[in-house]
Structures are given as structure tokens and as C-alpha cells.
Amino acid sequence: MHKLNTSYKPSERISFLRERALKLDPEICSVGARSYYFMKGWMESAAQSLPMRSCMGLKSVINNMPIKGIKEDLLLGEHGNPGWHEFINFWPGGYANLEEFLQTTELSEDQKQDMRNWMAQKPFDWITLAPVAPWPAEMQIASDRGVIQIWGTDLNHSIRNYEKVH
């Protein structure tokens, strides 16, 4: 088993940015907006293929998310939904946590009702048809610590059978 390298110490700036992000600082987070806009694009493209629905969800996020400029950041943008990102991105378990999620958001009552209506249709049940293998221990540790985010679907940025690729 690999030992984790614990000698790395982030810079003061990186430590500050990480702590601010983990606190759900309203200055950098529009909590709920990313999930809402992704679902809006996803549900409006219901007749299309899964990859196209994913594209339409992302297009809706890009076209609608607020752009926040923050003094300490080098790039403009939006942190998203820390802690809830997996709620929308193809995680069927999100159905059970919908009301808890909605309580944490800045969404309007109309947007919250849209989310309830969309999720009542169970739009992500398809993922249970092709579950992926368990993650290696190192990936699970990195995910638990917030170092990486991988959702294990065919629509993300990971490469299956990486050893065969390189």
C-alpha cells in the first residue's frame, strides 16, 4: 500500500482560498444556482442523447451562472455548490436529499419548485443500469479530502483503464 506524502504545505494564499471555499462564503458561492441551471438544461433536452443532455446542462450553467470577480482570485468565476456538487451531477442518491439540499440554497421559491418537479421525474435513474467498479483506495482518500472530484460516469473527465492508455 502506498503511503501518502504528507510533507506538502500549501502556500498562505492557497490555504486562504481553500478555507474560504469550504465555508460556503456567499461572496464566492451562489449556492444552488449551478444545480438549478444544470437541471434546467438537462430537463429541457430530455429527448436528446445522454451526452447531449450533459452538454445542454453545462450550456445552461455557462449561460446563466452569475460571474463573480473576487479580489484574491486570479480568475473570474463561480465556485459552485461546494458539498452539493454531486447532488445534480448524475447521483441518484440525490433524490432522497432534495429537501435538505433546497434548504441550503439561495434559490427562489419558484426555482425550488422547479427542482422538486424535475427530480420527481427521477431523471438520473439510468445510471443504475451500468454501475462502475469501486475506486482504488488512493482515489477514495483523495476524494474524501476534496483533492479530486470524480463521479464515475461516462460523462465525466476520467479515463477508464488508464494503464492501457499510456
Report on the architecture of this protein.
The protein has 166 residues and is mainly α. 43% of the residues lie in helices and 0% in strands. It has 8 helices and no strands. Helix 2 crosses helix 3 (50-64).
Give a concise summary.
With 166 residues, this protein is mainly α.
Question: What are the key terms here?
Answer:
globular; 0% strand; 166 residues; 8 helices; mainly alpha
Count of β-strands: 0
Q: Percent helix among the residues?
A: 40-55%
**Mean pLDDT, rounded to whole units?**
75
SSE class: mainly alpha
Helix and strand element order: HHHHHHHH
Low-pLDDT stretches are none
| Basic shape | globular
CA-CA gap between termini? 22 Å
Number of helices: 8
Strand content: under 5%
Major sheet details: none
Radius of gyration: 17 Å
Helices and strands, with pairings:
Blueprint (H helix, E strand, L loop, with lengths): L11 H11 L10 H12 L5 H15 L20 H4 L9 H6 L5 H12 L16 H8 L17 H4 L1
Helix pairs in contact: 2-3, 2-6
